[in-house]
Records
---
Amino acid sequence: MGDEFFTLKEAAERLGVSRATLWRRIRGGDIAVFQSQQDRRERLVRREEIDAMMRPVEINPGKELAAA
């Protein structure tokens, strides 16, 4: 099974953020970006990376509240 990709617009919509915010995450190294072979201007991100960002992470409420 090959990699599946989102366009930047699709990824931003899925995450509920602006494209500018998505670009900040890309520049920060949180998300890898690829160039489409069909359209060299189009940028793509891996679907699995975007899906992973949407999964909830466990927190320790006691530590979070104590740090505040």
---
Amino acid sequence: MQKERFLANTVAEENILSCLLSNPRAIMRVLDVLRPEHFYRDKHAVIYKMMLKLYQQGRTCTIDNVWDEIERQDVVEKLNMTRMDLVDIADSLATLDAVEDHAAIVIRKAVHRQLAYASAEIAASAYAEDDGALEKAEKAIYEIAVGANSERIPTFGEALDHYIEDLERRIGDKENGVARGIPMGFVEVDKTVGGLQPGGLYTLAALTGLGKTAFSLNVAINIVQHAKRALFFSLEMRRDELVQRVLSMEVPIDQTLLRDASIDSVTLNALKSRAQALKACDFNIDDKTFLLSGIKSKSRQMHAYKPLDLIVIDYLQMIESTTDGRGRHETRAEEVAKLSREMKRLACELDIPILVLAQLNRDVDKRQTKDPQLSDINESGGIARDSDVVMFLYTTEEEMEKRRECKLHEVTLKVAKNRNGRTGEVNLVFSPRITKFKNDYSEDSDNERI
């Protein structure tokens, strides 16, 4: 308790209350950032809480009105308060011009107290060897950091002005061929989906071997080469394999040549040159994290250090929800639904798009038409419900035969669900030798190193 007092400034708290009792209209200058829980003394917190209540009721924060509200709460004896306490505070005559400065001091002290309390809880959780200690610690600190940056809630009129300004900007972007969200790099896909939107959960599903990882890696590389920042969680492929794919598509060079180190000095120099240019990209690949808590924790840490523009998870059904696997009474479908729900929450929390890959079940192979449906996603209920956009990759048997021969072939990207836009299909061209998707055959290059 003695240490805790150093993390409080009761004089600043009294100065705020004095300002507000002397000039009740001044409450508008602090009510959007200062909350009752910021006050160290319970007495001060109750007084301020009653002031807020009176303001919301359209009543003036006079001594009589504040005292009347305090008596209604039946806390006078508990807090050992008298009406003279309000009179003494009002008579201190704090400088009104400094009310925001006093509020900033009180908030800063409150944040330090929260950090001290959180540290004690983190230590207790660590000594207890709680499996969830790391995520609890990260979340506690993150919430304090977010709470310290309180922003005033805009009025509806301000929200309307902001929307009109944003609409005008988007109209201009559309006229200039710029996608509404972050462009994925595929013209028709961006037109259909509207680009990657902040807070959106995007699911890309396909059967094994149809290019889920390749497409997501193409998207990530496309955006980081336009001054964006991306984090790629690879739960199936090693980091070196993904780096090899990036170099393969960027040089371009057949992956097998890189795998077997069958390259000459000229090609090696071309690789080194392209690798040097790619170093400028803010792209991070994590191939060591498989737990849901770890993915959330690392995402928050990296976003807090420097804002991310995209998170990719390859793939959702590979994530472990706990160290022991599925909960005791939890079905696989319930576990996957929990994973997709947490991914959506993380996207909203960080206010960035998250692209998750998902596996289709083999039922689609048994049908005459290979057109995937939402029900074809393994454990699809939660994934389909939580996703803002669900996309599928599929191809015809004729085009699949070309793939087996490592030839350029068409792959259809189907937008099966789009919460804020239209659905439809887009034909893309895929080069299996360099694992690169292209808008159409006109982008084919004859100088691929084979």
---
Amino acid sequence: MKKVFSTAGLCLLMVGCNADRSGTAETDRDNTAINQRDADDRTVTPMDQSNDSAEIDRVAEIRRAVLDIDDLSSNGQNVKIVTDNGKVVLRGPVASIAERDAIGKVAESLAGAGNVTNQLEIEPN
């Protein structure tokens, strides 16, 4: 009898975990238009990252500084940072104008004025 109760309890637990939580699930983001826009050769992507060790070190330095910014969204923490020939390109969605500007300021402080192209996009609410 004890075994039947345990199995029944497990079934109830599993059903409870799969209950419909309407209104709490996030919808998948459709990146089709962005992916099509970025498919041309004019858009910098992580594939354009230089393999030069100084460039890779620069990306790591900027990434550490970005992660030190207080209260960044998870998107803000994961922006794309691409360097080549001393130039830095920032790409990806962020939560706000303030977040975009803070990340750009940190990158510019490390890469130098005029060496950062901030292409971060404010994510719609």
---
Amino acid sequence: MSERRLRLELRPSPLLASALVAAHAAAAACALLALPGVPGALLAAALAALGAASAWSRALLRAGASVRALELAGSEAIVFLASGDSFRAQVAERRYVSRLVVTLVLRHPVRRTILVARDMLGGDLFRRLRIWALWGRLPAVAAKQLSA
């Protein structure tokens, strides 16, 4: 009997990118207020650059190490990167699931956290990902029944 797998092709998320840039811009503004002068300006510039880099890599999926697709089955995931590489990984039990995002922690062979925003997948696939993240397995019903 073959195990069911869920393949998720991730799309870039402009909303997540905006949130990352806004959060880093707020941190940069706080750094400028708390540390005036050249050191504060350098710290603010570094925080702004970090926000742009994280948005580019994690939300817009433009870096070579960006996760472009996931294939889930049981507690295992096959991670497909934008560079064309792929690897198998164990997904940790600790997961965060909400209406807007799902966070998956990979623990073996690499330690990495993957954040999947709602707009990175279609509604039905995001719902199936949430179910998998909560239960650790795919539902036994047909996909048509889930969308009802």
